[in-house]
Design goal:
GTP Cyclohydrolase I, domain 2, 4-stranded antiparallel beta sheet, elongated
Length: 124
């Protein structure tokens, strides 16, 4: 059981990529932002001071940026899903909460961002 408030988080991870529903969107490079909350029990890491008892957020950042920059997706949901599933392949007992934002999306009204928030339960 994961304690209600235990999590490793990554906020504001940014990269440039060519994701978008239309071909015109995919031709232009835009900035994307990812926020992650990786829920797992952290008491063991608190006692041991050993990275094997927690999440190596450097690996998670590298993985998310690699997926975000080396693949192209039409939907933010697909981008978020691929990142979340890849994280769970490294850490199957995690609950992954992910937000993906497209910064300055091509919409009327000039929103700062648009995005999705998704939750992937542990693969136990």
């Amino acid at each position: 059981m994961i304690p209600a408030h235990d999590a490793v988080f990554i906020r504001g991870l940014e990269f440039e990529a060519n994701h978008g529903y239309t071909a015109a969107e995919r031709k232009l490079t835009r900035r994307f932002r990812v926020n992650l909350e990786l829920r797992l029990p952290l008491a063991d890491a608190g006692r041991s001071d050993d990275i094997r008892d927690t999440i190596d957020y450097r690996k998670v950042c590298d993985l998310a940026v690699s997926i975000g920059t080396e693949s192209t997706f039409r939907l933010l949901e697909a981008l978020a899903g691929h990142i979340a599933v890849a994280i769970q392949q490294l850490y199957p007992t995690l609950e992954v909460r992910i937000e993906v934002e497209k910064l300055a999306p091509p919409c009327r009204g000039a929103p700062e961002s648009s995005g999705v928030r998704m939750v992937y339960p542990p693969k136990t």
